[in-house]
Amino acid sequence: MSARYGADAARTAADAIRQRVGEVAQARVGLILGSGLGGIASSIEQPSRIPYRDVPGFPGATVVGHAGELIAGTLAGAPVIALSGRFHMYEGHDAGLAGFPVRVLHALGVRTLIVSNAAGAARQTFAAGTIMLIEDHINMMFRNPLLGPQEPGDVRFPDMSEPYDADLRALARRVANEQGLSIEEGVYLGLLGPTYETPAEARMIAKLGADAVGMSTVPEVIVARALGMRVLGLSCITNAAGGLAGAPITHEEVIETTAKVAAQLQQLVRGIVSKL
CB 3.0-4.6 Å disulfide test: which of 4, 183, 215, 242 passes with 193? Predict the structure, then answer.
């Protein structure tokens, strides 16, 4: 991993953020909002917003559905820091940069990370609009953000037997039940992208034991676990994986579906944060 995405760079970015948002930055909970899910940021009260281009080490976001800004404020009465948009390796970034925002959140004091993404369904019983609680993942990006010299504060060989915290998943299920919201649970598989999977790849993904497939999240979770952070993952199922529905997949379809589910996901995240 390049040093420009390491612990020192994260502290520099965190210091710059604190200068902009002051006490608002004293949050223990961080949110990373994926494609079309940035609407959750609208629930943050008394927000302070910083464009990514103003954060040292952050490039601007380039993908439709990613606002490209850091938002600090309160959600359900708790101080939070949200990242509306992320950095994908399919944009030409390396794995170290894909995981770098997590290092910055950690440097700001965040110890619980909630990640969300839009994903395709490998499990044929998942309909578009399903919310899936991520119980585990498969890294088929074949990249790891921890490659290179060990960074201060990192575990050199992080245990990945529970990448997504069991207690947080139990909390999410309780909150969903209280809200009368139906959610599923499953395994997320990360691909490098930017192409959607072929029909043969979709069949392979299902046989490997994955329930959903996407192009993000995995590098962030690996960095979070190396730093000892607790992670909760949520996928918004937007479509059937490539070829399984018999129709082409478009990014516009992904954004449209996440917009329809945004209110439910927003309610769920608010409920979870209020109980942390």
Answer: 215
